[in-house]
Structures are given as C-alpha cells and as structure tokens.
Amino acid sequence: MRPPPDNVAVLAAVATFLAKELRVEDPAQAFRVKVAAHLLGGVARGLKVGEALDEQAMGLLAMLLHEDAPEGPLSSDDRARRLHDQQARLSARVLAGEIPPEDETLLQGLRALLASELALSNPRFDLDDQVGEL
Amino acid sequence: MIAANAPDPTLHARVLATLRAALGPDTQLTRLEPLGGGACQEIWRAEARLADGASRALVIRGDPAVALPGSLGRREEFEVINAAVAAGAPTPAARWLTEGLLRPGAWAYTMDLWPGVTLGAKVTRDPSLAGARERAPTQLAEALAAIHTVTPERVTLPLPVPEDPVAAALSALRESMERLPCARPAQAVGLAWLMKHRPPPGGEITLVHGDFRTGNLLFEPEGLTGVLDWEFAHWGSPLEDIGWLCVRDWRFGALDRAVGGLCRRAPFVAAYSARSGRAVSPQELTFWEVYGNLRWAAGAILQGQRVLAGPERDLELLAIPWRAAELEYEALRLIARHAQSPTSAP
Q: From chain B, which residues contact A within 8 Å (Cβ)?
C-alpha cells in the first residue's frame, strides 16, 4: 500500500491548485480550468463520502417504496445496481399514480435525496426554501 | 464527416464568394475564425471590408454535424428569425441563406455581430450593467411580447403546429425523460404534478423562442439590445418562455432575482401582462416554471450523454449533468410551495 497522500487528498489538492493558484490569461481557458477544478472537487467528495451517501439514499428510497433495506454491506457495483433499480421503481409508481405527486413524505424524502447528491456535486447550492421567492 | 473546427482550405474562398455576392465584388474578407462557445453549433466570426473601406463584423451560423434533439436546422431558423425581426423583436436579422458554405450539404446564414455582453456572471452582477438590470422588467417584457405576436394564423413558418401546446410540451418532456440513462424519481414527481395541474386545452399558440434566458440575451449599459439563439423556437404556449426565463439555473448566483438573475418576478410579469394584454396567473407561472426546471434537468443529463457517447470531449458539457439535481430540487420546492399556497406566485 502506498504511503499517504491517498486519492482523495491528491484530488482535493489538484482541484485547489486549479481553482485558486493557477493563473491563466485567456478567459475561455480560465473558465475551463474552473470547470476542471469543479469536476475534480466533485470526484474527491464522491470518493470520500459517496459510499455513505449511497447507503443513505438506498435507505430513503426503501422507505419511500415501503420495502426493507438490504441485509449486509453491498459491493459498489451492487449498490449502483440497487440504486438504479430503486429509482426506476419509485419513478414508475409515481407515474402510475400509486403515490400522489404532492405527497409530503415523498417530497421531503426526494428533497433529502437531492440534497445529499448536491453535497457532492455543488456543496455551495443554497437549499433555503425562500430562495427566489417574490 | 469534417469535424467542426478542422482546417478547411477552401472555406475562406467560399465565404468570400458569398460575401461578394451579397455586399459587392470588391468586398474583402479580413477575418474568419470559429467563435467561442460553439459547443453545439458551427459558428464563425467573420469580418468584411467593403469597397468604401468600412468594415462589417459578421457571424456565420451553420448546421452542426450532429443536431441537438428538438433543435431547428439553419433553414428553419432563418425563417423564424426573420419573422421575429418583422414582429419588432430585437434580434439581428438572418441573411444570405446558403447551402454548402461551411460543410457540404449543410445550410448556413450570416448575421451582423452586435456588440454587448451575454455572459451570465457579468450580465447579472457587473456594476456597469446595473442600469440595464433596472430596465430589465420592461425590456424583457417588450421583447417577449413582440415575439409572441407571431402566431400561426398570421405567419407561415416551417414548424409543426400542435393541437394542444401543453400536451405537446408534456409529451416532449416525457420523451426526454425516457431517454435518460437512469430514472430520476424527482422528475417523475414533477411530470406527474404537471399532468395533474396542467392548464386546460385550447390555450393560445404563439411563436415561442424556446431558450429565452440569461446567456442568450445581449446587454449593453443602456439595456437589453438583442435576443440570440433561436434554435429551440417552436409554436407553443407563450407562457413557456416566461417560465423558462425564471428557471433557477439562469440566475448565476443572483438568487434573489428570480427572472434570469436580472429582476424579480412581479415587476416583470406585470410589464409582460401590460405589453402583451395577456394575464399570467400565479398557477400558470408555477406550472411553466416547474416545467422549465424539469426540461433543463432532463436536458442537462442528456447533454452529458452526448459527450460520453460521441466524439465530443467538452469539459463544460461533462459538468452539466450534475446540475440536474439543482433543477429537480427547485421543481420540488415549487411543488411543495404550491401545495401549501396554491394561489400565490412562486
């Protein structure tokens, strides 16, 4: 096993370098450097907490589907498959009219699910309910 | 197939011939280069020197090698733009429609390059454009009201006329959602909600710009000067354009200004109603905002699919799918808010 730094630490450091230190003259290139930093930051957060957030998402989806959570830890492929399957089944139930779209538990559960996705892809996203009011 | 920006030794000669046919035999082509931001278009910037020494900045837009689903070809766009110009919309006229100008078999037209700023971060925050933002409610309303005077009864355009504009919009959204690589429950909730709360059939049909939002609007310090990018124009409900302009992603951090990061909803909607004579109810506004956020949520994921599946390796396109969660979150926020208080504006 390699000594530290681990993958997360390296990615985070490279993302910080791109976002905060690298100076690029050409504005179009500078923008792409920002995009690259944003993408790497997302990857680093995914490596660090993605697994825990996937577990949380599977639990939320199981609750919304009224089904039991899987027993024992899943491999990362199995987690991806299960999440894919849960999302497809919940979507189908909603579109079939089995759960009304205004259902408060459904809306709250899905917003929590999206909030954890946003914690990975855009931690600065403002979750406040009053955003954009008026 | 020739890639969008591959060197083409005869391009210069072809463009020069087109410009000479249009502007006179002594016209010179002094500049020809791809314009930035051509992620999904073939767009070139050209500069012509006329016989009298005056120079003219131009943009050439051609059919892309692979068109985005739901986008118009340049031939159709040419007619749409000129109908909008005739209706008084502030947009550069499309000229000199030509086949094979940029690529064999592809159509292209030319327009004047108008000065101004489109970049979202500048338009929504640059101090030099504060006056423009102050005038935004009225000017956005005027531009949209002008576009929405174009109707199938008055103008013939090469676009399908839907029987029911809301049903057509919902079926387009459903088709996008069905092409997603993974189901998104928030989008399913959004679509189910839209079907339940849809405005009644028989609604008005007008020209819809289809992508009227910060980023496609040209500003100078005195205000809005141009509306660009007509590739998603179609016949539909005029309120679709209103909802789209309020989609959260077009605020560029200016979150308190719901209308494209430029102004708040109330003064804009009031100005639009006054100019267009069209009442916009809070329910309809919520409906079309939810629709807009979902349309872009699905579209954002599909844009990323294009990069992963195709020859394009555009970093910006790769970053877009992650934005879907932001738009879905906003759609659910609007739905929850409507459930609590159905008759108030978002």
A: 36, 182-193, 196, 246, 248, 251, 255-256, 258, 264-266, 315-316, 318-319, 322-323, 325-326, 328-330, 332-333, 335-337, 339, 345-346
Residues from chain A contacting residue B251 (CB–CB below 8 Å): 132
d(CA A38, CA A122): 8
Q: Which of A110, A127, A128 to mutate to test the interface with B (most CBs of B within 10 A)?
A: A110
Q: State how far the alpha carbon of B136 is from the alpha carbons of B150, B192, B242, in Å.
A: 22, 34, 13
pLDDT averaged over 10-residue windows placed end to end, chain B, 346 residues = 58 91 92 68 87 93 81 94 97 93 90 93 94 96 98 95 96 95 96 96 95 97 96 96 96 93 95 96 95 96 79 77 95 93 76
ipTM > 0.90?
A: yes
Three-class secondary structure of residue A15 per DSSP = helix
> Is the separation of the CB atoms in A8 and A50 below 8 Å?
no
Contact B98, B228 (CB under 8 A): no
